[in-house]
Amino acid sequence: MKLGFQEAQLSYTSGSQSARAWTEAWVKAWAYCPHCGNAKMSQFPNNSPVADFLCVGCNEEFELKSQKGKFGPKVSDGAYKAKCERLAASNNPNLLLMNYDRVSLAVVNLFIVPKHFFVPEIIQERKPLAATARRAGWIGSNILLGKVPESGKIHIVQNGVVRPKELVLGEWQKTLFLRSKSLEARGWLLDVLKCVESLGKREFTLEEAYAFDRHLGDLYPGNQNIRPKIRQQLQYLRDRGFIEFVSRGSYRLK
Questions:
Q1: Which candidate, 45, 72, 71, 50, places its Cα nearest to that of 62?
Q2: 178 in a domain, yes or no?
Q3: Does 133 lie in the same domain as 240?
Q4: Does the keyword Phosphoprotein apply (predicted)?
């Protein structure tokens, strides 16, 4: 995998147009599908409603976002209503995020947020555009990247280093069970995983997980049995290989 952009792509006078051309051409030439491992990405026509690329092997769709610096806790995205409507759709695109260096004209980071990590809680509604705007009243969305667990950020390139393909494919396959879950069941698993990740250490106790009961109760006000639900999610995450049981009441993030 070559990380540099091709000089032949520098045909635009606009910086944003050039960057779009560089990054899209790079993905088409070098990226592979983490779902099936196919090394061929087909590009959708410009201004397609949601997706940018399609894997010709398994039909997984991908939306590309690229910028010079690292991504922060939120990423601006398309129309809020359309994004929410597509959450449970089979063709909801995976999110492909790229950081590049403008001086060396090369990819620095490339990671994917699989579509099965998308739940309503990470889609934020933005304010409608002002009446003076060209698209007055249009309501966009933000993807709250900070709410996505680390296992939902699968790096292909990290800090200028290409990660082994077999590791990427393995990390992707490990998360696929989420696709069989309803949005609410998926949300519970991801919220509990994100909570224990936020402790900032690999080993944690059940009591430390219970400390999030008020936070989770606010997210799921209809559930009156928060602590049993936390235990249930930890057991399921253990069975799926995201955490391991150390001793009674103690766990370790893998």
A1: 50
A2: no
A3: no
A4: no
pLDDT digits (tens, 9 = 90+) for 32-47: 999 999 888 888 876 6
Q: Please give the average per-residue pLDDT across 239-250, as a whole number.
A: 93
Specify the higher pLDDT residue, 82 or 228. 228
Shared-domain flag, residues 138 and 107: yes
pTM here is 0.88
Which two structure tokens, joined as six digits, stand for 119?
Answer: 């739940």
**Residue 231 has which token pair?**
């235990």
Selection from 2-11, 97-106, 167-176 with the highest mean pLDDT: 167-176
The b/e string for 187-216 (b: 16+ C-beta within 10 A; e otherwise) is bbbbbbbbbbbeeeeeebeeebbeebeeeb
Domain that holds residue 192: 183-253
What are the tens digits of pLDDT across the range 18-73?
A: 788 889 999 999 999 999 998 888 888 766 666 789 998 999 999 999 999 899 99
Residue 110 CA to residue 156 CA, distance in Å, equals 6
Q: Closest by alpha carbon to 28, among 36, 19, 20, 40?
A: 40
Asked if 99 and 172 touch (Cβ cutoff 8 Å), the reply is no
Give the separation between CA 197 and CA 254, rounded to whole angstroms. 11
